[in-house]
Amino acid sequence: MRAAIYARYSSENQRPESIDDQVRACRRLAEDHGCVVDNKYVYVDEAKSGALRDRPGLEALCTAVREQAFEAVLVDDLSRLSRDNHFLLTLYAEFRFHGVRILSRADCLDSDDRHSKLGFQMRGIVNELYLDDLREKTLRGQLGQKARGFTVGEATYGYRSVPVGEIRADRRGRPRPDGYRMTIEGAEAGVVRRIFENFAGGVGINAIVKALNREHVRGRRKTAGGWSPSTVSRILKNEKYVGRWTWNRTETRRDPRTGRKRRHAKDRTEWHVTESEHLRIVSVEVWDRVLARWSEIDRAWPVRRAHRGDSVRQRSYAETHPPHLLSGMLRCAACGNTIGQVSGKSGGYYGCLSAARRACGNRLLVRRGVAEAKLMEIVRAQICDAGRVHAVLEAVGREVQRLCADLPENLKLKRASLAAEERKIANFIDFIGDGKGTRALSQALGEAEQRATTLRDEIGVLDSASQNVFEAPPAEWVIERIAKLQDLLERATVRSAILLRQVLGPVTLTAIHPEVGKPYYQAETILQIVNFLGDPEDSSNWLRKWRRGELNTGPRGTAVAHRKSVCGVTILRFPATTLPFLLDGHSVPTSF
């Protein structure tokens, strides 16, 4: 009778030599039953859990069973086939369907025995209970380690786990410490702070990724593509960097149909939360700014179509990634809906999007270039006074100099500490070279090298900071930059538009139709009121069709204006200003 052998060992419990032992025992079983085993029908899976279904060796065995390449399958015990009772019985039924026997040496079971079906089910339940018991004991041991103040497989980018306590040899002779604790990895922590600061400052995730890859910043894992948006996103949402370590938040369960693991959230009462100030890399202030930024861009990414009754509403992509300086800022006073670009003619026109769908009577338009130019004119006049900005920069420079006044002293102390650690390392090496090395001395050498590495990283950061201390630019430079403010903003439209939205607030446009003169928009922001004019007489065919309601766009109109209130800026707060008059709709002054 032709037969095949299947052997498997699990990386947690057995050694690779177990494969040879299982095959040898199965060959003796083959001799007892008069079976012939060809070497090409010996299937093995190394370091594969019995709960897995997609094992290469097992899949090859099942393929050969369907081809009826042999009449029997020999295993050392049924747990080698599977520790999942449901999957084991599935294999049992499939093998019997193709006329293949299952012979288990340790269980003394033969699927051809009509009384063996009960035995197969009982052994399957026992093997499955073994996994449940192992899982429970593992969790109990991990909870004990957490209670003793150690970490349990919680390493992440920016931290390193270091052994602590007495080191003993386990049953296989491998050194095992009492436990592990986390320490901050200096170089990686600097990268983490940079990511948080950039994101909190308005830099997009893709821009951060490109900068890290362009500068060849090393990550924890060497991947072909380097840094990715998903990696940076996980870092930005990880509470460990603010000193809050939460363990036992989720558990893994196997899908009974596929055998694959899926994560499921545990009840909050089972969470193990630790506040570790000494492991904080990011300040609470930066963390709060990052959370605020996440709330700003929430639901801005393309997602699947929402189900009926779903309360989650997808935000407009233009709200977080505006293509123009005024995108997402303009609101129609008549209907309250968005005013956006409704035509690309002549550089583009802004109009009420509801009017484009014939749901609003406001059909006035304003040229995009005119609206942006007039808006920047107001911004320059109100918050971009060159003398005021230069004074702010000088104040910032003085504050930075004050905060960095202790940098030379810190560098001196760090260098002295590094020199002491290096002398200590040299002494340790001399002792070991003289044959006086011990396990405790080896551990002390490792700790000293770790401290020296951390000090070198800190010295590098401090040295770089001391060489790049902010200094206020000359007044001429400020005047030149402000004169080119709109050009500077248009170089990075997305960030500039979001900044303008924060400074100006929503811009509400009211269509004004005077009895004499041209129609225009009167718009309000937190700066003041301005009128933007348009020429109602235009030879463009598409504008004529708009007036007649033949196009889903709007007539060339008009203008923008801005609300009076207080303008908040990052450093200074300027008082509100109000125009002493309203423009008559026939002319717009060049400055205010």
Structural description of this entry:
The protein has 592 residues and is of the alpha+beta class. Helix content is 43%, strand content 17%. It contains 18 helices and 22 strands. Strands 2-1-3-4-5 form a five-stranded mixed sheet, sandwiched between helices. It has a four-stranded mixed sheet with strand order 14-18-19-20, covered by helices on one side. The longest helix has 32 residues, at 116-147. 26% of the residues are buried.
Question: Which features would summarize this protein structure in a list?
Answer:
alpha+beta; four-stranded mixed beta sheet; 592 residues; 18 helices
Residue-averaged pLDDT, rounded? 78
Strand order of the largest sheet: 2-1-3-4-5
What distance separates the N and C termini? 101 Å
From the alpha-carbon coordinates, what is the Rg to the nearest angstrom? 36 Å
Structural class: alpha+beta
Given as residue ranges, the uncertain stretches (5+ residues, pLDDT < 50) are 533-592
Number of strands: 22
The general outline is: flat
Number of H- or I-type helical stretches:
18
Helix content: 40-55%
| Biggest sheet layout | 5 strands, mixed
Beta fraction: 15-25%
